[in-house]
Every structure is written in structure tokens, then in C-alpha cells.
Amino acid sequence: MNEVLQAMKSRKSVKKYKDTPVPKELIDQIVEAGLYAPSGLNKQSPIVLVVTDKAVRDELSKLNAGKDPFFRSDPFYGAPCVLVVLADKSVPTYVYDGSLVMENMLLAAHSLGLGACWIHRAKETFEMPEGKAILKKLGVEGDYEGIGNCIVGYSDMQPTEKPRKENRVYYI
């Protein structure tokens, strides 16, 4: 089977991580893959925040958890790296463009032997004053919306295979 198709079929969401830091070289490769995602009219509106600083990572985790009544602990499952995708709301395809960046990064992490998972609530996190303050501190200007958090690290679990639903394709 084609290497790309195999990666797509074998990638699974990882929800438990070792505390081992991810080397910058691997993070850079993952981010680069994300930035090569297609975008509407080639606007390339998404940006990526690479969060490896534990204090900032923990702050984002706390902000994220505050928006979900089901999480009482770390919604980032202990992952040492969070790649936050935000996109410029003035671009009509910003949500789709940011979603493509997320998928490219998830596949890239898997291809490099790392675990990854899409964690929602980036939108809510960066609508909060604390989230806006993080962007301001980084010098990010503009009207950006959080698309997703791509958590990355060394897996401390073996994800299980989930069956694919049937009857989802219709030929015309």
C-alpha cells in the first residue's frame, strides 16, 4: 500500500504521553507539514503557536479545561508539546484552511513516530481575555480564531483500532 495512504489508515489519536520532550527538529518538521496544507485561494491564513514552555502549556490546559465540564484534569493528556492552530477570520475559508493544517500535522507526527491528537476548544480558549493576552504577548495581531490544538509527544499507550462505519459512500 502507498506510504501516505498507510499513514492515513494507521494514525490513531493518542491520549497518554510520556513526559519526554520532543526534539525541536521533529516539531519543526511537523509544523512545516502543516504550513504546506492547501488553503482557499492560497491565502495561507492559518498560523501555528508552538508551545513547549511548560508554564504556558499548563496555562493553556487550564483555560481549555475550564470550557469542558467533563475534564477535571489535563485535557492535553500530559503531552509536552501543543501546536495551536489559529486562522484569520477575514479569510472566508479560514476554518477549512486551519483544519487542513491540523490534519497535515497529525499525519506528520505519526510518520515521525510520535503520538498526536486533535484537542478542540482552541476557539473558546482564545476568545477568553487570558487567551487574547497570550496572543498579544506574542505580538499576534489581527482577528484570529482558534481552530484546534494538536498535542504531540511520545505515546505512553497503544491506541486501539476503531471500526470504520459502513454505508458512507454513495456513487453516482
Characterise this structure:
By secondary structure, the chain is an alpha+beta fold. The chain has a single domain, classed as NADH Oxidase (3-Layer(aba) Sandwich), CATH 3.40.109. The protein is 37% helix and 17% strand. It has helices spanning 3-10, 24-35, 54-65, 94-111, 122-125, 129-138, and strands spanning 46-51, 81-88, 115-119, 144-153. The protein has a 4-stranded antiparallel β-sheet with strand order 1-2-4-3. The chain is globular, with a radius of gyration of 16 Å.
Concise synopsis of the structure shown:
37% of the residues lie in helices and 17% in strands.
Pick out its properties:
about 170 residues, alpha+beta, NADH Oxidase, four-stranded antiparallel beta sheet, about 15% strand, globular
Order of helices and strands: HHEHEHEHHE
Q: Largest sheet, order of strands side by side?
A: 1-2-4-3
CATH fold field value? NADH Oxidase
Per DSSP E runs of 2 or more residues, the count of β-strands stands at 4
Q: Uncertain runs with pLDDT below 50, 5 residues or more?
A: none
Question: Under the CATH scheme, which class?
Answer: Alpha Beta
The CATH superfamily is identified as NADH Oxidase
Broad shape: globular
Query: What Rg, in angstroms, do the CA atoms define?
Result: 16 Å
Helix vs. strand class: alpha+beta
Supply the number of structural domains: 1
N-to-C CA distance: 26 Å
User: What's the overall average pLDDT, rounded?
Assistant: 94
Strand composition percent: 15-25%
- What is the percent of helical residues? 25-40%
Number of helices: 6
